[in-house]
Amino acid sequence: MNKHEFTIRYNFNQLSAAIASAPTAYLGRQAAVLIPIIEIDQQLHLVLTQRAMHLRHHPGQISFPGGKVEPNDVNAIHTALREAHEEIGLHAENVEVLGLFPPHKTFTGFEITPVVAFVKQHFELVIDPGEVADCFTVPLRFFIDRDNRHQVFHYRHGKRYHVHFMPFEDRFIWGVTAAIIDLLCRHVTQN
């Protein structure tokens, strides 16, 4: 799938289903993540990070660039772009925002809004070691292949929930990041 086809599918497909959120009765701390899609050798790739091990929330996990909404952030898009710049050096001017997916509530008390965007040009990766241990890309076609997207059931307080996971090479992508990737793939393929 190329950038043009992705854009058409993203814009014209109905959102097949919202992300299965954790059932929480309270309003979580607001956060946003950027789903940066970059073209490498005529193939679309997702840009992902590995969170630093010393972080309080989700240390070492694979994630999208993003973080908590700050008081000066205008909206979720502003938060996602600000965080992507802080974490990996991706400037907002180098990003074409396509849209947002519905917020996802987590068991850890966050309500995360995914922001889907294209990276216009390759950029110099500048990792903030205070937040990010590594940054890498995965071909979107890997995730679009339904055989690479898995889910298991997890029981919490006597209730059953889906947990998404996607092993890629020596990495293990799971939780909300995997759920967002699954939603993105289902949205652009209707599968």
Automatic annotation (TrEMBL):
Positions of transmembrane segments: none
Keyword Acyltransferase in annotation: no
Domain of life of the organism encoding this protein: Bacteria
Requisite cofactors: Mn(2+); Mg(2+)
Matches recorded under CDD domains: NUDIX_CoAse_Nudt7
Domain named Nudix hydrolase: residues: 28-161
Keywords of this entry: Hydrolase, Magnesium, Manganese, Metal-binding
SUPFAM superfamilies: Nudix
InterPro entries noted in UniProt: CoAse, NUDIX_hydrolase-like_dom_sf, NUDIX_hydrolase_dom
Protein name, per record: Coenzyme A pyrophosphatase
Organism (species): Shewanella litoralis
Encoding gene per record: yeaB
